[in-house]
């Protein structure tokens, strides 16, 4: 008798503060000879979910790749800024020339050549439909590259501004 008292139906209880709110116990009494353990053993079969749909293919249209919010512009500019910042600092340390002297002494031709090669190398995989995130793993993720590029852009501008205000090389 004690085991069947668990399955007793409780009367409807109405709270005095909110008369529209009620609580009901939906438990049922065991059927003839049925126990609690046999009820748990007859759980309905769960159907397996279908596999998730494949990831959408990345658009390789020229207007999508080079759109303002597309995958190419910020990455290419960030890569150029990373190369530019490191090379500007390396030339400055080795020869003592500031950024403006480096640009005046043939830096424009080197910049244009580097820009063309890096832009083509960055665009070829994107035009083939390879997503930027598909090749990133571990420490070298696509987000880390974006942040490094942003910091390099700020660093290059800060370097040029500081050298302009100072009137000479930073190092």
What share of the residues does DSSP label as strand, in percent?
Answer: under 5%
Global morphology:
elongated
Q: For the CA atoms, what is the radius of gyration?
A: 34 Å
Instruction: Indicate the mean pLDDT.
Output: 78
What is the first-to-last residue Cα distance? 90 Å
Please count the beta strands (DSSP E, at least 2 residues each).
2
Unreliable sequence segments: none
The arrangement of helices and strands along the chain is: EEHHHHH
Please estimate the helix content. 40-55%
Largest sheet: 2 strands, antiparallel
Give the tally of structural domains. 2
* Structural class based on helices, strands and sheet pairing: mainly alpha
- In spatial order, strands of the major sheet run 1-2
Helical stretch count? 5
Summarize the structure.
Helix content is 51%, strand content 2%.
Notes on the protein architecture:
With 171 residues, this protein is an all-alpha fold. The chain has two domains: 4-36, no CATH class; 62-166, no CATH class. It contains five helices and two strands, in the order ββααααα. The protein has helices at residues 36-41, 62-65, 73-95, 99-127, 142-166; strands at 13-14, 22-23. Strands 1-2 form a two-stranded antiparallel sheet. α3 packs antiparallel against α4 (99-127) and α3 (73-95) crosses α5 (142-166). It is elongated and about 100 Å long. The N and C termini lie far apart (90 Å). 11% of the residues are buried.
């Amino acid at each position: 008798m004690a085991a069947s008292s668990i399955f007793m139906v409780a009367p409807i209880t109405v709270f005095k503060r909110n008369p529209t709110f009620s609580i009901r116990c939906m438990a049922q009494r065991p059927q003839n000879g049925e126990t609690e353990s046999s009820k748990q053993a007859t759980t309905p079969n769960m159907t397996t979910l279908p596999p998730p749909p494949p990831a959408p293919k990345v658009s390789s249209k020229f207007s999508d790749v080079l759109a303002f919010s597309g995958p190419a512009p910020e990455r290419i500019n960030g890569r150029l800024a990373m190369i530019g910042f490191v090379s500007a600092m390396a030339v400055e340390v080795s020869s003592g020339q500031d950024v403006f002297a480096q640009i005046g002494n043939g830096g424009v031709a080197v910049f244009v050549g580097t820009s063309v090669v890096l832009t083509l190398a960055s665009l070829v995989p994107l035009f083939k439909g390879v997503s930027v995130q598909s090749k990133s793993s571990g420490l070298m993720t696509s987000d880390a590259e974006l942040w490094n590029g942003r910091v390099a852009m700020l660093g290059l501008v800060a370097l040029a501004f500081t050298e302009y205000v100072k009137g000479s090389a930073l190092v």
